[in-house]
Amino acid sequence: MDRVTVVQAGFAAAAVVVGASLAAALRGGIGAKSIAALATLIGVGAVAAWVSFALDPSRAVAIAALGLTVAAAIEGTLVRVRRSLARARRVDDEAAQAERRLRELVERETAAHAAELERTLARARAESTSLLLDEERRIAEARRQDVATREEQAGANLSEALAQTQRRVERRLAEWGEDLERAQQGLAAQIARLADRQKQLLTEVETRMRGDAERVEGEADELRSIVAKLREELARAAEETAAAAQAELETTQGERRRALHELNERLRRRERALRDQVEREEAEAVRRIQASFADVERRQVEQLERAVARSASSYADAAAQQFADAIKAQREDAARRLARELDRGVQAYAREAERVLAERLSQVGDAGAQRLEKRLNGIAAGLERQREEFVQSLESRLGDMESDLRRRLQSLTAETDSERTVLETRLSDLSRRLDELLAQARESLRTRA
């Protein structure tokens, strides 16, 4: 086997080693030291090939030596490529860790805000329930006071009816008194004109007076029975009014219970709607963040792959052209420049990718957190505002109802006191007049007898 065949076999072996090293470097299955050792070995073979070419110049030996040199240079650049790939993998791992930490942070913040919102809703629901119970108690108390007021009003009406009845009785008694006085005057005149018939008329007058006395006593008994009946009717009317008021109160309480039930149902529906809206906002925020992460990761990987491919192809073409133009004079300079340019390009693209990825991750995370925080703050502020408005309106309405009820109670109390005073005065006057009339009738009967 001659030296040309040996050099060509070494070139073929170097090409195989470079291909295998490139595949292993792309997979990450070979270390930097192994690549450096292979580059050194191929470089030693290239030096030996050039020494052989110097001893016996030959075109085949020169081509094989040039191939070994290119293989050694490429193998040397594979160290930079592997470092760039390792750096890119570290960047990917750091991006994945940052994404995972951001997702965990978003989940924790979302859970914290959801728990805070649940506590706020529970507190608002408890306050609303207590306010509703207080309102129900106040309304029931107002109804009871209204029933009492109506009972007092019914009593006043009954007292007024009794007073009217007593006035009618007084008028009738006054008429009877006038009739008695006229009868007495007529009897006196007849006694003066008919003195001779005094004994006969005296007997008739006594008989008539006894009949009148019996009739007066019967009418007095009848009046007492009428008054008793009126009192019974007034008592029945009061009981019926109280029963009607109690039925109306029960009906109103039933309506209030239904209204409270409907209000609780509306609050529960509102709570479910708010919980669904919060869940939708959380899912939308998580989906947007994940989509942004995936898009940024895909674009950065594609840009890095295109940059590496363009750099490798351009530098390989330039190196081949330079090696073709000046094989001997520019060999070491071209290899050094190729390595320097490839390293600078990979570093520049790696820095750009890291910067863009970090900026995009920070922007996406901040924007998502701000939007979620803004939504949660808006929902909490809306709930607080609605609760305050409801409480204010409820307090104002209850205050108006209480003031109106107090005014009515005061006016009714004053009217009831005045009417009661008048009624008591009239009853005492009527009793006194009845006693006086009965005493006068009895005294006149005794004197005439």
Which consecutive residue ranges, at least 5 long each, have pLDDT under 50?
A: none
User: Averaging pLDDT over every residue, what do you get?
Assistant: 69
Rg (C-alpha, Å): 59 Å
Q: What is the SS-derived class?
A: mainly alpha
Order of helices and strands: HHHHH
Query: Beta fraction of the residues?
Result: under 5%
Please tell me what the overall shape is.
rod-shaped
Helix run count: 5
**Biggest sheet layout:** none
Relative helix content: over 70%
In quaternary terms, these chains amount to single chain
Would you kindly provide a written description of the structure presented here, covering whatever features stand out?
The chain is mainly α and 449 residues long. The protein is built from 5 helices and no strands. The longest helix has 135 residues, at 59-193. The chain is rod-shaped. The N and C termini lie far apart (186 Å).
